[in-house]
Structures are given as structure tokens and as C-alpha cells.
Write a structure and sequence with these properties.
This protein has four helices and nine strands; from the N terminus they run βαββαββαββαββ. It is of the alpha+beta class and 171 residues long. The N and C termini lie far apart (59 Å).
Length: 171
């Protein structure tokens, strides 16, 4: 059974590390559906968040191969945990006089914001889960989307909840 998996990889922030990670995928015929890379709080470490598809056995193989790579610090299949995920999209849409109010309403409904205005176009920034991005694109499509730029998915494991202190207050 094929399913999408979100994998987080902490790596040394050095030249060539991303090439080795992506090379592992291409060399074995695995597809990367989404890829996002950025420095962490430690400038010597970067986090790669990637989305791939495959059976549980294939994903297990991918994770094992990633762990063997030099410069890989930690690999976590976030799909096996509770995690928060987001994407961002910049959408340039045709803003004719008769459609400007509708574009602004749609952006507002999706908590997007207009980040650039020209005489003929609005550029909207929207963040959220993939389904939210797809939904706003569906609504803006008939108005004339000129260009779309999307980030890959970024994700972070949810923090563990600490039990509430059940100590009774002094009376």
C-alpha cells in the first residue's frame, strides 16, 4: 500500500549534504514529493523536511539508508508521531476592477494577506496545511491565477504534554 510519509532529517550544515540526501532517493528510484531545507537554531545544523511515498517497507529502507549517510545526525519519520505541518504559497492573481473585492474576501477567509499590489495583479501569501492551500487555489483559479510559488511542507513533532500538577492548593 502506497502512502505519503513526512520525514525530518537533521544534518550537518555543510556543502554537498543535500546532494547526498537527494542522491540517495534518485539513485534508488524513490521520489521526493516535497522538500524544504533550512538552518536550525544551531547554525551548524540544518533540518531537511521531505515528503515521499511508498509502502511501509520502502519507507523503512529509506530511513535506514538516510541514517547511514555521513553528515546525517538524526532521522525521524514524523508520520509515526503527532506533528504540526504547514506550507506557504505566494499566488499572483489577475486583479481586474470587477474582481478585486472578491479576491480580498477570499484572501481574508483563508487568513491570507496581500503582499504585493500592481495595477493588474495582487500577490497573496497564504500558509496552512496542504488542503487549505489547494482550497484557496481552487477558489482563485476562475479569477485568473498568473503564477504560484509554494514552499515544501515543513513539519515539527508536537511537544509532549506535561501532566497538570494535581497538588492541592494550601487553604
Amino acid at each position: 500500500m502506497e502512502n505519503r510519509r513526512t520525514i525530518s532529517v537533521l544534518v550537518d550544515n555543510e556543502p554537498g549534504v543535500l546532494v547526498r540526501v537527494t542522491g540517495l532517493f534518485s539513485g534508488r528510484g524513490f521520489n521526493i514529493e516535497s522538500l524544504s531545507v533550512a538552518e536550525t537554531m544551531d547554525p551548524g545544523v540544518s533540518r531537511i523536511t521531505l515528503v515521499t511515498s511508498g509502502s511501509p517497507a520502502i519507507v523503512e529502507q529509506i530511513v535506514k539508508q538516510l541514517r547511514k549517510l555521513i553528515n546525517v545526525i538524526k532521522v525521524v519519520d514524523l508520520t509515526e508521531t503527532e506533528f504540526v505541518e504547514r506550507e506557504m504559497a505566494l499566488i499572483r492573481v489577475r486583479a481586474e476592477a470587477g474582481s478585486r473585492a472578491e479576491i480580498l474576501r477570499i484572501a481574508d477567509i483563508f487568513r491570507g494577506k496581500v503582499v504585493d499590489v500592481s495595477p493588474r495583479y495582487y500577490t497573496i501569501e497564504v500558509t496552512g496545511q496542504e488542503a487549505k492551500i489547494e482550497a484557496i487555489l481552487d477558489l482563485l483559479h476562475h479569477l485568473g491565477i498568473e503564477e504560484i510559488v509554494r514552499t515544501g511542507k515543513i513539519a515539527i513533532a508536537r511537544a509532549k504534554k506535561t501532566p497538570k500538577n494535581n497538588a492541592r492548593s494550601a487553604t
